[in-house]
Amino acid sequence: MKFFGWKFLSSVVLSAALLVGCGGQETTKTQTSNTTVAGETVDERADWPKKVRFAVTGIDGMEELQRNYGAFRDIIQDLMGVEFEFFALSDRTIVTTAMEYDQVDMVLSGPSEYVLTKSAVPGAEPLAAIERDQYHTVFIVAEDSKYQTLEDLKGAKIAMKEAGSTSGHIGPSSILIDHGFNLDRDVNILLLGGASVEALKSGEVDAIGDGIRVYNKMVEEDGEGKWRLLHEGPPLPQDPFVASPKLPESFKAEFRRILFEYEEDILNAILASEDNKKYNKASIVEISDADYDLMRKTYSILGIDL
Residue 39: pLDDT band by 50, 70, 90 thresholds? Predict the structure, then answer.
């Protein structure tokens, strides 16, 4: 299974990023905090941006971004004393190009998107991350399916989400590889985006590889006894807050401090939107770049150039 390389993808989406972003202006400096050192007044925030351009991966368009993260923006800019301006995305991969070309300063990113961004912008830094209460990949089959173990899926049709999705592509692919599957030879993977559930219900595919929330929603809609978890994977990496290398170190340190000190208030602001239920019972945690090495390994096996 081979895919287009990231560098090629970047060139394709650049023009789109230029269109959808409402940012693009240069950051300017402001003065908001002073200290005295050796009798001289020092402005600790002299190099801070006056306005921070903020994006969220997996959110398409300004209206959805405003609806789901408006309360978060309000509280974070009050705590930081800096205006946060939304940068709307039209695709999960565009954020990488946006940061590479200095169109966005801060991103709440999915794990897969972070790996792509870090590859294109080596100085990008994960400051902290949101750890979801339930965030792992599962394989779902019909209750009366003949498949009883993951190994039984050899020769089967498996629906996944779109290329690059953490829980709906990279996660299930990684699990299959770890269990000895050759993805080109042993299974027929169909990247169906949001149509994977309907494909399973109609019998077009034998199984779905996606996040546990997809299974929970199927049970919620169809009741118990209709669908079965064939396999559950380990927890996936957390969703990081990713800072552009152009942001000052003092700004990044303050943003990190605020995330932890006001964790409950910030998470409650995110959960003000019904669409952010995935963050129920979530917490803000420390993170490092090495936490995403498994994602990089899977990308490499899938033939996706970073």
Answer: low
